[in-house]
Predict the structure.
Amino acid sequence: MSHSETAVRAAIEGFIEPCLQQTLGQARAVTQLTLDGPRLNLTLELGFPVGGYASQLTAALAAQLRHAGLADIDLALTLSSRIVAHSVQRNLQPLAGVGNVVAVASGKGGVGKSTVAVNLALAWAAQGARVGMLDADIYGPSQPLMLGLVGQRPDSPDGKHIRPLQAHGLKVMSIGLLVDAAQALVWRGPMVTQALTQMLADTQWGELDYLVVDMPPGTGDIQLTLSQRVPVAGAVIVTTPQDIALADARKGLAMFGKVAVPVLGIVENMSLHVCSHCGHAEHVFGAGGGARLAAEQGVRLLGELPLEAAIREEADGGRPSVVAAPDSPRAASYLQMARNVAGALAARGRDRSALFPKIVVEES
C-alpha cells in the first residue's frame, strides 16, 4: 500500500458518519478502497437504507479528504446497505421474517406521533427498505386515513391469518381496517392488548426490514403491557418543544426503560412553523426543548420536524409528505430523520444470534 493510499484510508475510516454517529472504521463500513492516480474508488456498506444518500455522503467525504490535505482526490462512491435483525426484550421471540420492530410512541396525544410514524415508514420504503406499518392505536386509528385505505378491508386466505393491505410500498394493518370507522370501540385494557398482539402475530407480514408500530399515546397500563408483549428492537419518542410535552416524553422514556426496550432517540415535532404565505419562520411552541431533553436523558435527537399546513393536508388526503412532495424541504426533514433512526438502530450492533438474510441496495 502506498503512503498516499494509507493516508486516504485513514481519512476515510476516521470520518464520523452522521447517521451512525460512529467512524466508518468503527462501523467496519469500508468494503473496498482503491486509489488509481487521483481517482478513489470507494465502496461502503452501511447498516441502514441508503437510497438517495450517495450525493450527500460523497460531498461530506470529499470535505473530509480536503480537510486531511487530500484535495486532489476524485472520489467515486458506491453505497450498499446491510440491514440486520437486532435483539428484542429477553423474554420475547422476534417475529418470523421481521428484522426490526420499531415503536413510535409519545407521552401524550396531540404531538403528531402518527404523522411522524407514517412518514418514517414511507421514508424507509423510499430509501429501499422493505417496510410494514402496524397501527396499534386501537381507540383512535389514523393510519387508514393517512394511507388512503379508508373503506378497504384485508382478507384472510386461510381463515386464520390476515393478508395486510398495501399502500405506497408499505404493508399495512390497523384495527381501523377491521371495524366500522364510525364505531366507537369501548374496550377494556386486556381486550386492547389481545387485539393488538393478534394483529401482530396473525398478519402475514412476509420478509420485512422494519415494522413500524404506531403506539397509542400515553404511558398507562395499556402502553406498558404492549411494550412488554411486542418484541421491539428500539423505540422513538415523539414530543413537541413545550415543557408540558417534554414532561410527558420523560414518562415515555421511563416506560421503555422499565421493559428493557432501548430508546433510539427523540424526535421533536412541530419544531418550527414556516408561514405558507410570507415565509416567516417562528418557533410557535418554543425552541430547543427536544435537544435539551435528549442531552438530559443521554439519548439522540433524531430530528426536528416542521409545523406546516401542507403536512396535515397531505396526510388527510391519504398521501403523506414523503410521497406527496418527495422533493420538498418538509419531506427532506422526514427522510433525514429516518436515516438517523435507522442509523441509531444499526449502531446498537448486530444481534449475532438472529438469522436474517443480507439485504443489499446499491446506489452509485
